[in-house]
Amino acid sequence: xKMIHSLFLINCSGDIFLEKxxxxxxxxxxxxxFFEAQEKAADVxxxxxxxxxxxxxxxxxYRDKLFFVSVIQTEVPPLFVIExxxxxxxxxxxxxxxxxxxxxxxxxVIVYELLEEMLDNGFPLATESNILKExxxxxxxxxxxxxxxxxxxxxxxxxxxxxxxxxxxxxAGVKYTNNEAYFDVVEEIDAxxxxxxxxxxxxxxxxIDACIKLSGMPDLSLSFMNPRLLDDVSFHPxxxxxxxxxxxxxxxxxxxxxxxxxxxxxxxQNLVAIPVYVKHSISFKENSSCGxxxxxxxxxxxxxxxxEGITVTVHMPKVVLNMNLTTTQGSYTFxxxxxxxxxxxGKITPQKLPSLKGLVNLQSGAPKPEENPSLxxxxxxxxxxxxxxxxxxxxxxxxxxxPFKGVKYVTKAGKFQVRT
Amino acid sequence: MSSNSxxxxxxxxxxxxxxxxxxxxxTISPSGAFGLFSSDLKKNEDLKQMLESNKDSAKLxxxxxxxxxIAKGKNASELFPAVVKNVASKNIEIxxxxxxxxxxxxxxxxxxxxxxxxxxxxxxxxxxxxxxASALRVLSSIRVPIIVPIMMLAIKEASADLSPYxxxxxxxxxxxxxxxxxxxKEMLIEVIEKLLKDKSTLxxxxxxxxxxxxxxxxxxxxxxxxxxLCNLLVDVEEWGQVVIIHMLTRYxxxxxxxxxxxxxxxxxxxxxxxxxxxxxKEKTDKRKKPYTMDPDHRLLIRNTKPLLQSRNAAVVMAxxxxxxxxxxxxxxxxxxxxLVRLLRSNREVQYIVLQNIATMSxxxxxxxxxxxxxxxxxxxxxxxxxxxxxxxxxxxxxxxxISTLLREFQTxxxxxxxxxxxxxxxxxGRCATNIVEVTDTCLNGLVCLLSNRDEIVVAESVVxxxxxxxxxxxxxxxxxxxxxxxxxxxxxxxxxxxxxxLIGENCERVPKIAPDVLRKMAKSFTSEDDLVKLQILNxxxxxxxxxxxxxxxxxxxxxxxxxxxxxxxxRDRTRFIRQLIVPxxxxxxxxxxxxxxxxxxxxxxxxxxxxxxxxxxxxxxxSHTLNIKATGYLELSxxxxxxxxxxxxxxxxxxxxxxxxxxxxxxxxNSAKKFYSESEEEEDSSDSSSDSESESGSESGEQGESxxxxxxxxxxxxxxxxxxxxxxxxxxxxxNKRTAKRNSKAKGKSDSEDGEKENEKSKTSDSSNAESSSxxDSSSDSESESESESESESxxxTQVSTPVFVPTKTHVLLHRMSGKGLAAHxxxxxxxxxxxxxxVSIQITLNNTTDQKxxxxxxxxxxxxxxxxxxxxxxxxxxxxEGSITVSMGIDFCDSTxxxxxxxxxxxxxxxxxxxxxxGELLLPVAMSEKDFKKEQGMLTGMNxxxxxxxxxxxxxxxxxxxxxxxxxxxxxxxxSGQDNINRFAAKTVHSGSLMLVTVELKEGSxxxxxxxxxxxxxxxxxxxELKPVLSQG
Lengths: 420, 1034
Description:
The complex is a heterodimer.
Chain A: E1 4-10, E2 16-21, H1 31-40, E3 50-52, E4 57-63, E5 66-72, H2 78-96, H3 101-106, H4 108-118, E6 119-120, E7 123-124, H5 129-135, H6 141-150, H7 161-164, E8 180-193, E9 199-213, E10 219-224, E11 230-235, H8 241-247, E12 249-252, E13 257-266, E14 276-284, E15 290-299, E16 308-315, E17 320-327, E18 331-335, E19 340-346, E20 355-362, E21 375-382, E22 391-397, E23 404-418
Parallel strand pairs in A: 8-23
Antiparallel strand pairs in A: 1-2, 1-5, 3-4, 4-5, 6-7, 8-9, 9-13, 10-12, 10-22, 11-13, 14-15, 15-20, 16-19, 16-21, 17-20, 18-19, 21-23
Chain B: H1 2-10, H2 17-25, H3 30-52, H4 56-71, H5 80-84, H6 92-105, H7 110-123, H8 129-141, H9 148-158, H10 164-180, H11 185-196, H12 201-214, H13 220-223, H14 226-232, H15 238-255, H16 262-268, H17 277-288, H18 295-304, H19 313-326, H20 334-342, H21 347-363, H22 365-368, H23 383-396, H24 402-413, H25 418-434, H26 439-449, H27 455-471, H28 477-486, H29 493-505, H30 513-524, H31 530-546, H32 548-563, H33 568-581, H34 594-598, H35 622-626, H36 662-673, H37 683-695, H38 704-717, H39 721-728, H40 735-749, H41 753-772, H42 776-797, E1 811-814, E2 822-827, E3 840-848, E4 854-863, E5 869-871, E6 876-879, E7 884-892, E8 900-905, E9 910-915, E10 923-925, H43 930-939, E11 945-951, H44 959-969, E12 973-975, E13 982-989, E14 995-1002, E15 1007-1014, H45 1017-1032
Antiparallel strand pairs in B: 1-2, 2-3, 3-7, 4-6, 4-8, 5-7, 8-9, 10-13, 11-15, 12-13, 13-14, 14-15
């Protein structure tokens, strides 16, 4: 397994704007195979992540309108490379605030330094953000000014303490004047609702994201009122697995800063509450160049909370030319090129349900669409974890100060689709 | 273009990107390349000037721009001489960027690259581990064949470095050297073997990586490390975990017997080879003996389980494939939940995971059936994901769920994504053949689709119906008639061809329609697709044979058209058919059988999953994804019929274990036990079992699980302190005591930079642990208790004894010729120094060889390396001619062989002199019992141990000869030994008091093993190097 040989970053218009080689140089022309595959695939989403060429294999990911194409020479678990490439993109995001072509080009030296540290001879070396930040400090305006005056550099000259310790994810010597620990319990409902409004499939997936700003070496333990709800959990490496297995308590020494503590799936035995319903009537008349479109959204099983941030996205059939709609609430846009209808609804007030209705103009002469489009719905409910999961308490050991603790709950729509 | 590149010349930094894009797209136009080159020349001039300036900021700027050029794939090679000069820059950022440059261009400019080598060689000795490591990284990344020997040396040294981070980099360097020069293989395997023994979790992943790269077939190197790797696995970094798990999967398939019951195999037809007649007997034999899983096999399966919870998809997949390939089939079920979880991840991960699930779901439906709905397709999924999900849904379809599935499929067929709709139709066809109950329903559904408005859907339906009808000998005249009508409207060639074939095949069932179809086709023959033409010919032939009265002329007309067709395949086929069906004088015996040939019963096509044959690849591999054998794919072997000797995995219990006091051992056991996450259930058994086991190491293999566990625990208890640190974070409670104790001890002994750092760290993590544990109060008490205990203990064993031998060899300090008649010699009296207990005492004899008095002899300016201290002798007023005087002084060498330089002055002159101590003189002998020796040795293993094999004539291996040789070189004390073949010596370093344990163990023949255990690995290895030649010479 020789892992990653080279990396090319390619933007949407097919320009290779960065290349990095960890071994001998591989010519850019290897990317032609990638472009070929890209052409064959109708859209970017369908470019196969693994491509075989006569001398190399190309494994790519698509992130934030960029392709990360890695060149591989020998057998390697493809997920290994994919997972690593995403980690690279995450790191860029973390360092530059966004993972875009402009950001990468502006920081090309830091990007190079990062890539150099993240991979040695094609094998991952340091991927923990806490370690990398000790080796290479993220750019800030203040620092670049200071550096230009004092001549100091962004590059650390000692081995990050994390590299050698048993807790590589945490940097040493963390100090804050305000010690805070915040946890966001974010649950997403994935659902497929069929034409008649009954649930074909529904599932709750959750994550707990943490933002920890605590001095020293805090040892935290987080317990739940109802841990049995969590069916399948994946952990940040900091969590002590044993403790979870025996007591269902999350015990860990946290990384510094933002990180994902766990992600979980709520056991499928529990019935999933569906907080919204959609009444819809979409029809296209035979041999006529118009159709009717009428949808109404209403609250259902919303646990007495307000449903907000509602957006409905519909990929209309190709024959739709334009849409003439009126809405009782929010605003809508229809993009005649991509045929995407977006309706930004906002909050639901039960007194007056938001609706969107009107006429659809079809290409004349074309056969009427076979199928009605599915509605993709986004929404958000603050201060509610739809599964009922509740954090019981957070205790800190190992440090003397009293931290400020906070837990926030949010429920969102995940892949929430209504078939019509 | 030239103006383009000119303007680009004026810009700097990010602005160049747009031009570059154009270059990248226009594939190497020579003029463009030239324009670029000429402008580069000019641009590079100012870069060169910047690099040559004395200001770091200018250099840094230049380097940043150069790196920018490299990143864009532009040639910056001509700057090499200017860049390489900065390789020794003090500014770490410049240095790093120079490294980036070097690695990129060294291969092209090999001669110039050599200029930088000495800098790296120096950096390899730097006290800062990050610098040592990065020097090794760059040195090994420079692909210049001339430096292979230097690389080899650097790797060897780095593999014994104190810092696990440097050792990790050494493991990486192994692969680089191997790809540069495969002839170094044997030597590299030696290093790999050594590093495999390393107990640091940091090194484990990298060295296994090197193993896979250099010598994946040397499975024998793994045996002894197998249990250690299994136990460390949870704490290894995630990337290393993937590599180790894949390697261990291969290992398990060669070392253990199959845990799959015979019944299972029959069920999924996985191992057909068992079924051959020859094996029959063996098989029944095997059945009689109940299967028991090798405890090591179980260890692997158990220790990988927690990793299913990893956030890293690659780790989860690695564990999943391990379970799939080596666990009993009843246990593999637990992986499905985790794999389904990965489906929430990004599309690339989904793609790979779905592929693997597809392969699995063919063989073991049951595993994924509960998650059926997780594979339901959303309209927003990319097509490749949709088709994979569909594939899995098909594999999972059975009598119970087919009606739900068909309803779901109905939605898919209507999808706007036509490619996906077509795939769904294929799927319905497969379900129809696999599940007899629904065949008719499916067929009806498909027929309905024939009236679909979309041509692709109709075409696909036709193709599928054709296949279905072929499988069904039942009459389906109506459907065929319906399809014949479609010929008027449908244009897709495959569909037309399928319909024609179907009509030809069933021409006797639709006698009225078939000739009519042929008539229509004859009319449109010339404008049809080749595929369709072939089928028209076919149809004509079949009708000619069954219904020649109506179709004879038509067929001949078609045959004539075919004869002059542009496509040679069609001309060929026409000629062939004509000969076969049209009787003439030349036609041979074959034409008699023409009807049988054309209308033979044709075997129905099998509608199979495209993932059917993928299972011979190891899951999760690139080869599996591509369904072709990728370069470097390592075949997973079949289970052996009979398990190879399991005892090879037993770690040699070091003999000293035998003589530990029961109390001491119990302590070790207790504390070590909790380090591994899974060991709790064995708590009771491991104590008792390890007793018996330590009596005879070879037995332990048969002792079953508890024995194994005890074994590995013991193993772990020998870990170095840094190793223990890595464990302590995971656990709480009991072991805090032990770690703390260890630390206090380690701290007392080691003063080296690295050691200290590590201690600090473990201390902090300890204290946090201690407070988190439930037994907070008691733990702090016992901690201090054990601390004091351990201190008194260590004091006891390190009592300095009198030197057993004082060599009389003197060293020249100042020669009389260079000292203008003053000569000075020094020797080491091996006495504790009276000036300070960290100093080495030295006696200097001064001689006056002149004929005049030398006055005021004293020590002048001292040039000592940092840390070294020196106690000088009192000035000598005068030394008579021919007179001599001996004075003593003391130097604290800080346990290193650094040279102490100072000036020896007389009234008139000053002479610079140096004293560099032989390493053996940095020691003081220690009296110690054999028991203590073994105990201390047990704590100084792993990276604290160096060893070498010595070959010499047997007469040199008598205890007295060895004794004489060793004490001649080093100031050590002999330890009384119970065995004749083992000589032990103990000493402590003068400065820090670290133990230095020397063991010479005579082996069979004329070899002996020389082992040195010490925390001071540097002087340990120097001592080893000095002892080795002395012991082997006659």
